[in-house]
Each structure stands twice: as C-alpha cells, then as structure tokens.
Amino acid sequence: MSRIPVPAASRGEAKGRLDFSRHELPRELGVYSPIWAPISLEKDAVVLRDQDPYDRAAAEVSSGNGIKGRAALSLAVDAVAESGSVTLEMQDDQGRTPIQMVFRPDGKLYLREDGRLEPWLSWTPGEIFHLEIVFDTAVCRTNLTLNGAIKKQAFNASVNEITRLRLMTKQHIPRLSTLDDCGKYGNIAQVKPGCEEKTEETRVRLLALCWESKE
For residues 108 and 119, what is the distance between their CA atoms, to the nearest angstrom? Predict the structure, then answer.
C-alpha cells in the first residue's frame, strides 16, 4: 500500500532525476497506493489511478532542504473524476504548501494565489504538459513555465525551505466522522465497510521528473 525510499534518510538528495528505464518504480519515489487507487510503472511512466471515493493515490520525492531551486517534470492528465482532481504541490517538512496547482474536471488548471484557487489555463485529456518550477524562499516567490506559458507569483505560505514535491489524485480526502458527512459523500450504505462503490477514474501519467536545490 505504501513505500518509502530506502535506505531511509532524514532528507532527500538535493539533485536528482527519476529513472523509468529499470522497469520498476524509481527508488527515490515514495508512494501511497491503496487497492482502489493504485500506482504502477507502465511504458516508462508512473501511472496514478484512483477510483476510491474516500482515499487517493499519492507519489512524492524528497528534494533536499532547498532555499532556492528548480524542478522540471512532464505529465499527462488522462481523466479526472467528478469528485477528484490531479494536485501537484511543493511543501516544506511541516506540510506547508507555498506552491499548489490543481487540474479539475471542468477542464481548467488552477493555481493557488493569495490563499484562493484561481484558473490559469485549460487542459484536455491526454495532453502532455512540460512544467518548470523555479523557487526562491528568500523572497517567497516562484516562476512557473508550462508549455511556454509563464506565471510569476508569491508563495501561498512563508517557508524557510522546500523539501518535497507531491502528486496526488485528490486535493482533499473526505473525513467521515458524522452522519452529516455520510450525506455529503454518499449514502450510509455506501460508507459501511464492504459496501463502498468505485467512482469514475482519475488517471495521470508522470513521464519525467528532475530537480535541483541549493541548501
């Protein structure tokens, strides 16, 4: 269900590139992969699928303790379920998220700016995106380049360093603690153990990823 890079370390390498040529998930990639939200290596791409109404697939790399740096990746969003999203974040060790982008089922790519998700570009299923993220924690700013489109913006959270990049198939996981929650996310029969139903599929392919941080 889950896997972390081994040997385990308090921080990742400050410079790295995922190698998909070994016909297995790259060693540097940590994954959380429930049964209904599996992660696999297919045709030289890491594929995240999600049909789970109450969980998600997540993959992340630890990128050192970066005061400034860059990450470059290629990905293709093949489908997003009505209740899902494809969410890409850069975080610090405490989970604070200065950089967040979200592919939603309405065909829009959103960026979090000043605490709000604002639409930036449109996306179509299967389209390959080449993304470069350049960040500097000293000035709390990032430059994003996506298929030639450029966006400069301030961080959404003040951090001293950026330590990881995460790719997920939902922005949030539903928390079912009351009957009211059951009404929001499904009927009570669906949330009883063994009675869950699969949702439409969210599917994203990570085709390449490299990063470099200055500590």
Answer: 6
